[in-house]
Write a structure and sequence with these properties.
7-stranded mixed beta sheet; GMP Synthetase, Chain A, domain 3; Metallo-beta-lactamase, Chain A; alpha/beta; 624 residues
Length: 624
């Protein structure tokens, strides 16, 4: 980390084989890219291993654009060489990076056994090639984002180089790191943490608070958008990502680090957030301009990929088991000074969609852990029991000719419920509102982020539960009316998950008075939300109809299926901490109601005998 840009470039030039003609050396974020004009340097890259070992940097060798075949020839070679069964749908060229992106239905057939076909293609056309999966269900979001990234190649080339130069600019040493609670402490919503060292200022998440107009405390003196080095997004639920576009609309121009599916889902949810605000006559805190800028500045990294993000911070994302692309955020500060693990929302149990949250990091002196289910009373049933309970409730309702309404977040629980039903051969129609369908399409673009069982189902058994015939898209108000007026039993999954708005309220209005129907809660209902009131037992709720407020009777059956949440319960949180390789020096509890954070901090201290804290909003804690 102490090496400056000039030293890195000089050592690379000294370390390449004699006769290698380097046309350019640039950064792509933390990676160093060396463009060469010699075919030999591309075919024999053994020298790269030596440079990586010496510099402790990721180094990529790419062909100078002058070596690359012209696009028409390259496209012809690819289409003639790759089996038609691969289902190539799009070939995009980015000359700025000497890079071709091939979008295919079956990427494995483009790569070939052991990568042999891909190596052959690179050798013949001299372009670098990356493969992307075409969603099994068409996604306008995925298509638009990919096209935008291709169009912005020149901007991104300059942007990534500037990020890399900042990261490798050299630093004088780091002797302290501190954390400021800007949102999501002793509450659920508007998650936002500021990490500071003498060298760096990094935000972890920046969300909204569902059902309110409360946002993170971004106006405090410590936060200066121009001096902020980076933002790290753990996962794309609005309470974690909903204010990220605001940063980019009002001055921030640094990198946003997240997984690729997290970026795509963030765009989907933030676009919907703006649309919902407009429908309710409210002013969203940002426009689509902020969302586009966030995408332009995004740097997507895979799980367990180590990436320098500032001169003294190194980031690694790990599977969190919560939703698609969700991540545990591990940050190594300085040269071994301190390690921080931010769990954000995590699930330490195998689910229908994901493996349990990862334990793959060696050190974590400070752990920031969620407290959603932080009370000793918050013990959920085992996952298999929860799934059986859900299926039982649904089948009972179908047998009596009723309809099941499941309020769900667009991302996470909806897809979970779908897989549970599809795997059990459920035969009744399951209706999904538009945004749920869009989120589903994004899931089909990234099956590699799903659990091993579902990957095996898709890749080896030829069954994709997301594309089962029982799932029907509801794309208009007329279609919604048709579903409500139908006498046939069915399942309806609709947003929002806490019933704070969205189409779920329209369905509730049409179904609540009939005792044959069932309202099933499968996720957390925050205090003060519409969903929590009904869950608590309200049998009559106020609802606006044609501008007037009516009292809506809740005559339908109301059930809660515990154990399907994407959050770890009290027992799982404790089990996770006990399984960490190194006992943390300090555990900070956040993302929970006031009492839950305090209770979890007390019980963890009692069991693990380490320092525990439940900071209030705006408090700052020195970590080292």
């Amino acid at each position: 980390m102490e090496q400056t840009v000039e030293e890195i470039f000089r050592k690379i030039k000294e370390g390449v084989p004699p006769g290698t003609e380097i046309s350019d050396i640039r950064f792509e974020g933390c990676e160093v890219v060396v463009y060469v004009k010699n075919r030999e340097a591309l075919e024999d890259t053994g020298f790269v291993r030596n440079l990586v070992s010496e510099l402790k940097k990721r180094i990529i060798v790419r062909p100078d654009p002058s070596l690359c075949s012209d696009p028409e020839t390259a496209k012809k070679v690819i289409l003639e060489t790759v089996p038609k069964e691969a289902g190539i749908k799009q070939i995009n060229f980015e000359p700025e990076f000497a890079l071709i992106t091939v979008e295919a239905e079956k990427p494995g057939l483009v790569i070939g056994r052991g990568g042999e076909l891909l190596r052959e293609l690179k050798k013949r056309i001299m372009w670098d090639i990356q493969i992307k999966r075409v969603p099994a269900i068409h996604s306008d979001i995925v298509k638009t984002l990919r096209e935008m990234i291709y169009r912005e190649s020149q901007f991104r080339k300059e942007f990534l180089d500037s990020v890399g130069r900042r990261i490798h600019s050299g630093w004088k040493g780091t002797d302290w790191v501190r954390l400021t609670a800007l949102g999501g402490f002793r509450e659920v919503g508007r998650s936002c943490i500021l990490l500071q060292t003498p060298e760096s200022r990094v935000l972890l998440d920046c969300g909204i608070k569902p059902g309110s107009d409360e946002y993170p405390y971004l106006s405090v003196p410590e936060v200066n958008f121009q001096n902020l080095n980076a933002v790290v997004l753990s996962h794309p639920h609005l309470d974690h990502c909903g204010m990220i576009p605001y940063l980019y609309e009002y001055g921030f121009d640094g990198p946003l680090y997240c997984t690729a599916p997290a970026r795509d889902l963030m765009v989907l949810l933030c676009m919907d957030y703006i649309e919902l605000a407009q429908r309710e006559g409210k002013q969203a805190p940002y426009t689509t301009k902020g969302i586009k800028n966030a995408v332009r500045h995004s740097i997507c990294i895979d799980y367990e990929e180590v990436s320098d993000i500032t001169p003294d911070m190194r980031l690694t994302l790990f599977n969190a088991g919560h939703i698609l692309g969700s991540a545990l955020v591990h940050i190594h500060v300085g040269e071994g000074l301190h390690n921080i693990l931010y769990t954000s929302d995590f699930k330490f149990e195998k689910t229908a969609l994901f493996e349990p949250a990862s334990l793959g990091f060696p050190r974590a002196e400070t752990v920031i852990v969620e407290s959603t289910y932080g009370s000793p009373k918050d013990i959920q049933p085992r996952r298999k029991v929860a799934e059986e309970n859900l299926v039982s409730i649904v089948n009972e309702t179908m047998e009596r000719g009723g309809k099941v309404l499941i309020p769900s977040f667009a991302v996470g629980r909806a897809q979970d419920v779908m897989v549970i039903l599809a795997e059990r051969g459920f035969e009744y129609p399951v209706y999904l509102e538009g945004m749920l369908w869009d989120a589903l399409a994004i899931h089909t673009a990234y099956p590699e982020y799903l659990g091993r069982d579902i990957q095996r189902m898709i890749f080896h058994k030829g069954f994709n539960p997301f594309t089962a015939e029982i799932f029907k898209r509801v794309g208009s108000a007329d279609e919604r009316k048709s579903v409500l007026e139908s006498k046939d039993p069915c399942v309806i999954i609709a947003t929002s998950g806490m019933m704070t708005g969205g189409p779920v309220l329209e369905y509730l209005r049409g179904l609540a008075e009939d005792p044959k129907n069932t309202l099933v809660f499968v996720g957390y209902q925050a205090e003060g939300t519409f969903g929590r009131r009904i869950q608590k037992g309200w049998r009559e709720v106020p609802m606006k109809v044609n501008g007037k407020t009516i009292a809506l009777p809740i005559n339908c059956e109301v059930r809660t299926v515990e154990g399907l949440s994407g959050h770890s319960d009290f027992r799982q949180i404790h089990n996770y901490i006990s399984r960490l390789r190194q006992r943390p020096e300090r555990i900070i509890c956040n993302h929970g109601d006031n009492n839950k954070c305090i209770e979890l901090a007390k019980t963890i201290h009692k069991r693990f005998r380490c320092e525990t804290l439940a900071p209030k909003l705006l408090e700052t804690v020195r970590l080292s």
